[in-house]
């Protein structure tokens, strides 16, 4: 956030407010996230990723929701026993949703959104 010019350390919260505005989320959500009081939902994380100009994968990993092993770059997973994936395969959006505990009724939406961030994914005609 700091690297992107958001002054999040100020007690006045100017950078937090600007980030919230840029991401289209409530300022309180940004404050709670920075104070580690709550974990934002996937849509909030997606909006923050877009506002910060970073991949959603990075936001998910830095937030602690998933690990680098859960979302490997280049589609490789090096021997992670018991993960339900064959060595050398990429974690599917469906598997990511399951591991993150996305409620079943929201998984289809999660998968649709997550696929937009994969190589060759639909960019929602932006």
Folded structure, characterized:
The chain has 126 residues and is mainly α. The protein folds into two domains: 1-69, Orthogonal Bundle (434 Repressor (Amino-terminal Domain)), CATH 1.10.260; 87-126, no CATH class. The chain is 45% helix and 0% strand. It contains six helices and no strands. The protein has helices at residues 14-23, 27-34, 42-52, 56-63, 93-100, 104-115. Helix 1 packs across helix 2 and helix 5 (93-100) crosses helix 6 (104-115). Mean pLDDT is 77; it is low at 75-88.
List the helices and strands and how they pair.
Elements: H1 14-23, H2 27-34, H3 42-52, H4 56-63, H5 93-100, H6 104-115
Report the total helices.
Answer: 6
Radius of gyration: 16 Å
Main sheet record: none
Kindly report the CATH topology of the largest domain: 434 Repressor (Amino-terminal Domain)
Shape: elongated
Q: Give the amount of beta strand, in percent.
A: under 5%
User: What is the end-to-end distance?
Assistant: 24 Å
CATH architecture of the largest domain: Orthogonal Bundle
Number of strands: 0
Low-confidence stretches: 75-88
Average of pLDDT = 77
Order of helices and strands: HHHHHH
Brief write-up:
By secondary structure, the protein is an all-alpha fold. Helix content is 45%, strand content 0%. The chain has 6 helices and no strands.
Q: Which characteristics define this entry?
A:
mainly alpha, elongated, 434 Repressor (Amino-terminal Domain), 126 residues, 2 domains, single chain
């Amino acid at each position: 956030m700091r690297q992107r010019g958001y002054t999040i350390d100020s007690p006045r919260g100017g950078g937090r407010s600007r980030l919230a505005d840029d991401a289209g989320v409530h300022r309180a959500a940004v404050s709670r996230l920075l104070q580690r009081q709550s974990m934002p939902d996937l849509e909030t994380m997606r909006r923050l990723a877009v506002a910060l100009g970073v991949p959603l994968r990075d936001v998910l990993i830095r937030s602690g929701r998933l690990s680098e092993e859960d979302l490997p770059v280049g589609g490789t997973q090096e021997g992670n026993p018991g993960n339900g994936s064959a060595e050398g395969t990429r974690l599917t959006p469906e598997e990511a949703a399951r591991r993150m505990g996305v409620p079943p009724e929201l998984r289809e939406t999660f998968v649709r959104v997550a696929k937009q961030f994969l190589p060759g994914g639909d960019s929602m005609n932006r």
